[in-house]
What does this fold into?
Amino acid sequence: MNKRYIVTANAARARIFAHQAGVVREVETLVHPEGRLHTGDLRTGGKGEADDSATHSPRQSGNDDATMEKHAAFFAKEVADYMRQARTQGKADEFIIAAAPHFLGLLRQKLDKPTQECVIHTLDKDLSGASEEDLAEKFRPPLG
It folds into this structure.
């Protein structure tokens, strides 16, 4: 019987579930809090303390996007590394990935070839908040 992992992810959190015999159980959660913060928060250590000049000037979005992209790419690599290790350690030989559309693209870029070949289904939807029961229902194999 194949060992299947369902990976649900966005730029801030990835949850990994084992999916066997129609039962889904969470085995790991990877968190990347930087993916959730605004760049202004990152520069001030997330406490929201800023010098006066920052509070009076409008936020510049060009830099925010570049920083968020860098964090998302870094986290995508972390998730891809986790998947590669699960494959090489024999914990999983099939993957289903359900991720926020942009993050799914980043994750695909970071997967090595052998792990890519183990991905049997992808869904460009953020299901990182879904319950085990919801995932079991969504990815139940067709009968017959």
Summary: The chain is about 40% helix and 25% strand.
